[in-house]
Design goal:
The chain has a domain at about 85-115 and about 215-395: Rossmann fold. It contains 15 helices and 13 strands. The protein has helices at about 40-45, 90-95, 115-130, 140-155, 170-175, 190-205, 215-220, 220-230, 245-260, 280-285, 310-320, 330-345, 350-365, 385-395, 415-425, and strands at about 5, 15, 30-35, 85-90, 100-105, 135-140, 155-165, 180-185, 205, 235-240, 270-275, 325-330, 375-380. It has a six-stranded mixed β-sheet, sandwiched between helices. Helix 12 packs across helix 13. The longest helix has 15 residues, at about 115-130. The protein is globular, with a radius of gyration of 21 Å.
Length: about 425
């Protein structure tokens, strides 16, 4: 194979088919591709855009870049397909953020409604190649939903560990519907993460959290697509939510590979956005990337409610590679940004809106120039967390002022009542 597992700390290499997530030294592992041997070109990937065929993976925005993702036979690939998500531009959102050159990469339009599908198509494919019978993950919701779906497609048993009472119902419903054995752990996500690692180690189950290096390989393709969508002329910044930091790690690795291959003339800067109530990476960043200090996470953005992220070392490397920054935003800023994105007809879950709120904050603070081109990544679909959306608009979200509320109006069943409301809100002439 034209790839190995390589420790990012000491450089020790292991064969791809050795089922491990860390080096013997404790360092995290990368899938290291032999880039010069791959024969990669822009034309190769451009020629696959819009491809069709009987196998779903031929239409996948992940497997379009398969040489840079995973060297595996097509008959092993588990795909729905995923990826190939849109790049939206909206003048109302752009004005609110303060940038003319602002675009949104909407990963919520993946099959299960989040970017996790990109990592799971690769992770579950490799699980199938290894011949394992069961896969597991800890999750705040999206990972569980995605893994459950892909495991079902592959005929594997899925076991998901979720923090009891702290998962949005839209995500929990997916995990249950797709047939996963769902374990509600008494504690937060970090407790669930510790338990799933122990369970996988002792019970021989294959772990599919972003600690798994193959998950990172799939998530890299978000950046590959962004750059390809822009005609291989990268933006100045890529802004995204940061929770367990798998995307931070993946985006940096993707940009490094593209530069090494000569496919991009320069590397965009990365901006990782954390919720103020779940901000261990931000705290490290403002202290010059000091060692990680876990926090007790609490935020309305459940997808990034993580206080002890497992991909922290990879994330720091990615930010250093790209001259990146980390910013924190409040729940108020997150929900206001979400209301703006939603009202434009695009929509996203709260964690996704952190990217838009973060971009706005970086522009107002002068970190991002108003003439720079920025792509923000929306990581999850609006329907992932309908409770938060409804509570915002009805004024029932604790501690949040609904500045852009669109509350429902109750009327009697008469034309006069309808006309009266339309006149009141100024939507009738």
């Amino acid at each position: 194979m034209a790839a190995v597992l390589r420790c990012m700390e000491c450089g020790t290499e292991y064969p791809l088919d050795e089922m491990r997530y860390r080096c013997d030294c404790g360092g995290l592992l990368d899938v290291a591709h032999d880039l010069p041997s791959l024969g990669i070109s822009r034309e190769l990937f451009d020629g696959r855009t819009g491809a069709r065929g009987p196998e779903p993976w031929r239409r996948s925005g992940v497997w379009r870049f398969r040489e840079l993702v995973l060297p595996v036979d097509g008959d092993l690939i588990v795909s729905r397909p995923e990826g190939d998500t849109p790049l939206y531009r909206n003048p109302v959102i752009s004005r609110w953020v303060g940038l003319e050159g602002f675009a949104l990469k909407h990963e919520g339009e993946n099959p299960t409604g989040s970017f996790k599908d990109r990592g799971m198509t690769v992770g579950v494919t490799w699980a199938r190649a290894l011949g394992v019978r069961a896969v597991a993950c800890a999750s705040t919701g999206n990972t569980a939903a995605s893994m459950a779906a892909y495991a079902a497609l592959a005929g594997l048993t899925a076991v998901v560990f979720v923090p009891a009472g702290k998962v949005a119902l839209g995500k929990l419903a997916q995990a249950l519907a797709y047939g996963a054995l769902t374990l509600e752990v008494e504690g937060d996500f970090d407790a669930a993460m510790a338990l799933v690692q122990e369970s996988c180690r002792e019970l021989g189950i294959y772990l599919l959290n972003s600690l798994n290096p193959f998950r990172i390989e799939g998530q890299k393709t978000i950046v590959y697509e962004i750059v390809q969508d822009l005609g291989w002329d990268p933006p100045d910044w890529i802004v995204f939510p940061a929770g367990n930091l798998g995307n931070t790690a993946a985006f940096g690795k993707a940009l490094w590979e593209l530069r090494e291959l000569g496919l991009i003339p320069r590397m965009p800067r990365l901006a990782a956005v954390q919720a103020a109530g779940a901000n261990p990476l931000y705290r490290s960043f403002v202290r010059g990337f000091s060692p990680l200090e876990p926090v007790r996470a609490e935020t309305v953005a459940t997808a990034i409610r993580i206080g002890n992220p497992v991909s922290f070392p990879r994330a720091v490397r990615a930010l250093r590679w790209t001259g990146g920054v980390v910013v924190e935003v409040t729940d108020q800023e997150i929900m206001d940004a979400k209301a703006v994105v939603d009202a434009a007809g695009i929509g996203c879950e709260p964690a996704s809106a952190a990217a838009v709120a973060g971009a706005r904050k970086l522009v107002s603070g002068g970190v991002i120039g108003r003439d720079e081109r920025v792509v923000a990544v929306l990581t999850g679909n609006l329907l992932k967390d309908p409770e938060a959306t409804i509570a915002y608009h009805t004024g029932d979200l604790p501690g949040i002022v609904p500045r852009f509320a669109n509350y429902p109006r109750r009327v009697v069943p008469s034309l006069e009542a309808v006309a009266e409301v339309l006149e009141e809100v100024g939507r009738w002439s």
